[in-house]
What does this fold into?
Amino acid sequence: MICSRFHQIFESFSHKRILVIGDLMLDEFIWGNVKRISPEAPVPVVEVERESYFPGGAANVARNLREFAKTVHVMGLVGTDPHGEHLKRLLADEGINLDCIQQDPAYQTIVKTRIIARHQQVVRVDREKKRSLTPLQNEQAIAQVAKMLPEIDAIIIEDYAKGLLHQEFVDAITTLARRAGKTLAVDPNPGNVLQWNGVSVVKPNRSEAFAAAGMLLTDPVEPMDEDLNLFKVGAILSKKWKTENLLITLGEQGMLLFSGESAPYHTPTRAREVFDVSGAGDTAIALFTLALCSGATAAEAAEISNHASGIVVGKLGTATVTPSELIESFENHSHE
It folds into this structure.
């Protein structure tokens, strides 16, 4: 993509209004050093130096969007516990609209704690109890989406298989979005088998795509255009989900787009170095959706998404990409 075309699409970003629906989490990072092994067990002793917190899960998708879009709404469930309040404060501090977040005193906010020493993750501790919305909460969420549709440009459904999303809820949102002509993007999870008929794009990573297609995961092939199993997976999922676009993220191999009757489109990775892949998928779906509803073709949206993901994997922790970083990446790789 030439740089002038990127800037044309980019200029529309700041006018867009996006709703993110999905499992909300709080990401906790404990940073420290390891100087000895515990005398109690053969494990490292981490001497804690600092702690940091970031919105995680679907909340991280919203955080990625907020750097670019005019308005970002996030819909999901948190508890009334301190972690839920902390997550809401973090989102509010970044200017993300919280009107669609439901709080339930019977629900435990999901927290993922990563302990990092010398820039390496030592262990991750997950605190979660999977639970769906109650019938009343489900009804309220669907009513909120229906009411706000005239005021948004796109919806992203982010599934971490923590219980929030189920077929009836998904079908209701899909129907509403399709009738209103809104861009609807999905980041699926093979642990929560759902049908995605009629959405604008579904974005699994390689392992998720193989699992969803019911195929045994195979190693990547170089060159990528000779990876027959990957292309078979793409064909299976395009037919299974009946989606307009299927975007498979491939880590070091970039992304592969299946779009209608067009030939599969491969965009190679733009990452200069891979430091931490956590959150890269969130960045990918956020920027692909934003570009798509800003007038980009699916291939152009894939290029923009790929550039953004390449920046994020070069950072440690639940990171985001800034507008200036994305612009610089395109100018450095411009064909113009």
Notes: The longest helix spans residues 298-312.
